[in-house]
């Protein structure tokens, strides 16, 4: 194995070579000879042989450069000529470059044995040719690079033979050499991968005649190439056969005259017969037979200086110097002639650069130009030169069409050749250049022959195609301006033209053309032309009925009055014509048209109808539409008489939107009204006898005025005309038309109102959705009002929805639609003028009346002072719902004037009524939504309010104490607080009525003769000691709770005083006597004030933040004696010995209680009655802080006490360790018996046992299910706890309870479900408000039994931290399983998180 760079011996010098030639006759040429050695030719061949030997020595050096060149040559050949098919093209190019203008070249391909013999009659090889073919890319020889007559310039085309051959012989004149991969010297230096260290493709080896292939005939007078084929013989054969099928391959070669292909003895000869005449076609002959004709158009185009400058920037390898130095460029277009004179298009023709490329751009002809190609000559380089060539091609293409259009033979085929755009898939860089130039040339270069004068050419954008109709051929001179631009009818492929004279165009001009036919014979010819076309379309297989679509609206048909009319205005006559009203003129077709053959069929096709009753009705409709406001009663009478006769003879058809509905009819009041606005009188037997109900004339038809018709026929006609026989409360869509001034529905007023309020453009066409169309001026009649309001109440849900979603739809002439938010028609009419009768007999607008709920809140005494709608009609009460009246504009809050009127009325009432009247009025004021301006108006009025001592005082002189820690006596300067109203409600009243508010920092408590009262303190402690055993928790937790209470009570001194006064620090004159006050760690109360115990207990409960359940127990037992308290506990099976077992501070233990009974019981009972005797009971939990949401569950089966919420809750841990759950069923917690509870749950959750798995796995469904369940749970629970209270269950997610406890304290409870209707976005789901205490509850739900992964949002986390102990998490397990629900409660989750008792599964931070 030789190493790279190793030198080998060159072939030995041959001093003498004898060549003897013997001639032998051959079939192809008389000059063919065989060579042998003979000494006489030695001197003739010595020069060529020495030349080859010198090249061999120069190229055959084995060094690093040679090795590199060898590798480069191998890669370039395999990359550039990667297909054997390119071999023949490269050989043809070399042969073409070897020819000259005076010496045409004949080329022969001979495929025999394993050789391809290629020969041509061009120039023999000289020394420069040999040097070039033995060089790499013409690095030193630049002949072709500078010669414009030569195609090649890269110097690598010949190398394509090495794709199919390892040994190629060249015999030309005295040169005989070969390129041989398997030369022994090269073979000995091959590497293991088969590559050679020598660039054998450029190393010539002198080859004597005896070493040439045997049996291959060689013509010494020609240039011969003997190519030994490897395994690619079949590929080369197939490619040579393809050349025979595509003879255009030689069409643009400069010098090749013929191509002979001998494929294993099968000989084919292709010749191109060229012509010097511009319009004489080239002929392509195959085996002496003409196979195609090509019209060759050639143009020499000057190269602009800018393009030449751009070409200088390109490399010589990309652009040869011969193009850089050229001043002109030649473009050739070859148009295909199918026959001798018929030009035809080519589908996606190929681009040529003298030889074909692989590019197809959509041109209709073959294009040849000096394109700059890739090394394989198959693709274009994207550069400025090629872009310039495409601009030239576009310009020359249009110019050639212009030239051909002037030729009398070729002019009618130019549209076959026209290519306005290149194909979309072609490179945009070249396509944009071509398309732009074509567009420019079309505006300047005419090439379309005219019909009037073929020598006159038309521009592309002005030529008109009349090929389809050929109207101007039939009627020359009828429209000179149009006819001047008609393209010649002989022109082929006219569909390419932009402008076309179609049937629609003929229809548009038919009126003009018909009016120009002043002579009847000329008009007849026009009609005959149209009828002939109709007859042809009827006889053909494809009927073109739609071609007459545009003719029906054109006035071109001659009527019997010699006037031109449309097909809708004239009719075909009948034998017996029916009589019709005198005011309408029926026009018939002119008799001349009817005499033309097939005219009836054509007239029907364009829309002419035979005269009949329906046609007459259409004429009447047209008349009414044009002059509805000017029609008289005489016209109305004739129309009615005609319609009645039509009804008697047959059925008539009147559409709902027909103009006949606007026919004026005479009413009983003597006025004319549209038929659609009239009503049947009682004498015609309407469906609803409206005339007896409404005494005023609203449009009852006067039948006495319509004589000569039968009543039955008249009734049918009136109903067809839209006359109503009942009240149309619901009219659906109403289209606004011009209405009469006296129209009682006043649509025009409504339109004007909407135009002002909604800014609607009056130019638009309006469509109003008018529901419940009433006659407002009839509402003052009780009989009509009763009917109207009954209908309103029956359809209240539909009407409420329409009032909310009402839109005004309108559109302009372009059919663009607009929607406006406007006021509903019914809302407008009820508020436009007084039309609703009140209880006092007066008429009111709707916005002057109050909804019933406001009247009910005020009570009968105050409600009677406000305007109310009359609801009593005969023996029927019709009351509109609050929501409906509010949607119609009724008042939902009191006005300032009405409030002042009510206050003035109360001051004149009996003192015994003060409390009730003020309480009712306060409730309405609290619900009112006023702005600051209304509040200031009320402040200016000196309103008198009820003081605490029962007197009336001016509002601005009264005070209200807004603190729960002070209990003041009745005073004439203190505002009286009704029991039903909370402190928060009274703050609203004080703000709106200008009452001054006393807050915690606005007063000072002063007392006299104070002393500590241990008995009162001990009394409170004893009560707490007793109550602690009711807390549902372990003894350890009970002890902690009791210790916490005692520790807090230690800080308070119970002070008994003889006088207790609250004073203002800023105004010494302001002071009030107080019974009880908690301030500065002192609880002050008057001596001998046993009646203050309730107030003291309430203050202590607020101070200790006791739960409501604990306060309830304190209220039940504080009035009993000690023995009675213990007995009360024993009756309920509480273990009173628990008190002794609780170890607290000795100073506050329970040892001083009376004897404790030793009746220990293992069963605990709630202070409430048992909810279910045999299963599960619910007991409120008791903690130091108010935590009324927690509950306990105790099972009577095992005696173990469990609770619902663990104080150390982890949202992600398994709750199976919880001591008990609600597996017995949450139903048993809420209802005395299971069956009743199941019915209640079924009302809230239909079929809870049939919940699908998909629903359970839906986060949205489970969350919603849990919230609904907890809402129902809270309702049932508090109904049991506070059974004494008044209950109000609001279906809108707000549950309210108010009342007075057995001890006389006020109770106000609200459960608010914020997500009842839709997601509120709040960080909690529920608010439970008890008096002034608010608990925030977030519900998390899962369909699983144990493990819950609850997602906490950012807002929820912030709320947890903000509300602290007032924020609870309710975790609901087993969602959808009504009998297996478990609830767990976590109070203050934020603290548990910080303490590490509640662990998150994962966290996210926004950075």
Describe the protein in words.
The protein has 44 helices and 57 strands. The longest helix has 23 residues, at 1259-1281. Helix 20 crosses helix 22 and helix 33 runs antiparallel to helix 34 (1035-1050). Strand 11 (282-286) and strand 12 form a beta hairpin. It is an alpha+beta fold. 33% of the residues lie in helices and 18% in strands. The strands form 15 sheets. It has a 15-stranded mixed beta sheet that branches. Strands 40, 42, 43, 44, 45, 46 and 47 form a seven-stranded mixed beta sheet that branches. Strands 51-52-53-54-55-56-57 form a seven-stranded mixed beta sheet, sandwiched between helices.
Question: What is the general shape?
Answer: flat
Number of strands: 57
Q: What percentage of residues falls in helices of 4 or more residues? A: 25-40%
CA(first)-CA(last) distance: 69 Å
Q: In angstroms, what is the radius of gyration?
A: 56 Å
Number of helices: 44
Strand content: 15-25%
- Structure classification: alpha+beta
| Low-confidence region ranges | 1-37, 737-744, 1146-1250
